[in-house]
């Protein structure tokens, strides 16, 4: 029987502090932090053609973002929060073509301790009705298809850098990786960055992107998905207004909507998630501290 308890996607207003490893200042983006929920940067060497890289996820070979030029290529690998510390690898075709001749490229996933937060809330905040659960399941399947998006360049050209800007100014009110325990029941870790901002605050595209999905979802409320290219995506949600539509190309800093409190939330704020090779990773690795 399907479990009728679902993860609470809303976020509170308590500040969560990231614990564990901290990435050093970086001249390249995203910063390397090869831990669960982080990013590994793997040198692929020089070559006239961009190498093709894949990461094994279950029964799938998922494409990995490769940046650089003929003088030096780098694989930028998203690491799942659920990934166990220890040895890992991707596969690489150095000639830039899919098919035979791939080689494994190993790396090591380190450890990181994320904080926990224990909360007591009304049961209705964590127990879904059959109707709400069915809606959530439909929306989760749809968003899985969105997350699988992989395009070479979303707007016909590459962004000059993968350094992003925060979609709104303001303090973080919820950190990536925080695991909340509601009424004694553990929920999935927080998969993005919450930024405190008032309803109506303008939201900007964090990087050159194409809009690939918009919608009103049960947990996330009004949501916009952005494709930055090669499996690098952003999601912003709980919006009070969506001012773009699918297919729009946005420059870094271009307005796309307004902060709100739609979906399952306790108050207005912006939730921002970053996806890399179908994996939610810490947005803080893409922006200056």
Could you explain how this protein is built, in words?
This protein is mainly β and 289 residues long. It folds into 2 domains: 39-109, Sandwich (Immunoglobulin-like); 116-286, Glucose Permease (Domain IIA), CATH 2.70.70. The protein is built from 1 helix and 20 strands. The protein has one helix at residues 130-147, and strands at 39-45, 52-57, 60-63, 65-69, 72-78, 86-93, 103-109, 116-119, 172-174, 179-182, 185-186, 193-195, 202-204, 209-217, 221-229, 232-242, 249-250, 255-259, 270-276, 279-281. The strands form 4 sheets. Strands 9, 12, 13, 14, 15, 16, 17, 18, 19 and 20 form a 10-stranded antiparallel β-sheet that branches. It has a 4-stranded antiparallel β-sheet with strand order 3-2-6-7, with no helix packed on it. The longest helix has 18 residues, at 130-147. The radius of gyration is 19 Å and the shape is globular. The relative contact order is 0.20. Residues 1-25 have low confidence and may be disordered. This is Peptidase M23B. It comes from Verminephrobacter eiseniae (strain EF01-2). InterPro entries: Cell_wall_metabolism_enzyme, Dup_hybrid_motif, M23ase_b-sheet_dom, Peptidase_M23_N.
Task: Please tag this protein with its features.
38% strand, Immunoglobulin-like, globular, four-stranded antiparallel sheet, 2 domains, ten-stranded antiparallel sheet, Glucose Permease (Domain IIA), 289 residues, 20 strands, 6% helix, single chain, mainly beta
Give the SSE map.
Blueprint: E1 39-45, E2 52-57, E3 60-63, E4 65-69, E5 72-78, E6 86-93, E7 103-109, E8 116-119, H1 130-147, E9 172-174, E10 179-182, E11 185-186, E12 193-195, E13 202-204, E14 209-217, E15 221-229, E16 232-242, E17 249-250, E18 255-259, E19 270-276, E20 279-281
Parallel strand pairs: 8-10
Antiparallel strand pairs: 1-5, 2-3, 2-6, 4-5, 6-7, 9-12, 10-11, 12-19, 13-18, 14-15, 14-17, 15-16, 16-18, 16-19, 19-20
Domain Peptidase family M23 N-terminal: 34-96
Pfam family, one: Peptidase_M23
GO molecular function, one term: metalloendopeptidase activity
């Amino acid at each position: 029987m399907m479990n009728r308890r679902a993860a609470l996607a809303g976020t509170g207003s308590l500040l969560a502090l990231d614990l564990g490893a901290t990435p050093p200042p970086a001249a390249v983006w995203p910063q390397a932090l090869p831990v669960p929920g982080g990013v590994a940067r793997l040198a692929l060497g020089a070559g006239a053609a961009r190498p093709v890289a894949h990461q094994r996820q279950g029964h799938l070979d998922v494409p990995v973002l490769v940046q650089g030029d003929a003088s030096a290529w780098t694989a930028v690998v998203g690491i799942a929060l659920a990934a166990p510390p220890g040895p890992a690898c991707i596969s690489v075709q150095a000639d830039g073509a899919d098919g035979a001749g791939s080689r494994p490229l190993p790396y090591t996933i380190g450890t990181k301790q994320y904080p926990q937060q224990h909360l007591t809330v009304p049961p209705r905040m964590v127990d879904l009705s059959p109707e709400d659960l069915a809606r959530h399941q439909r929306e989760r399947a749809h968003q899985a298809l969105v997350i699988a998006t992989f395009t070479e360049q979303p707007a016909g050209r590459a962004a000059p850098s993968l350094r992003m800007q925060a979609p709104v100014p303001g303090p973080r009110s919820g950190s990536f990786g925080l695991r909340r325990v509601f009424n004694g029941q553990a929920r999935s870790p927080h998969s993005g960055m919450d930024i405190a901002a008032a309803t109506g605050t303008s939201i900007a595209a964090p990087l050159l992107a194409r809009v690939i999905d918009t919608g009103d979802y049960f947990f996330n409320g009004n949501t916009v998905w952005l494709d930055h290219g090669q499996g690098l995506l952003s999601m912003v949600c709980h919006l009070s207004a969506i001012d773009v539509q699918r297919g729009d190309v946005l420059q870094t800093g271009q307005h796309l909507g307004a902060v709100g409190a739609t979906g399952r939330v306790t108050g207005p704020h912006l939730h921002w998630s970053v996806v890399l090779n179908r994996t939610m990773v810490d947005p803080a690795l893409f922006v200056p501290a």
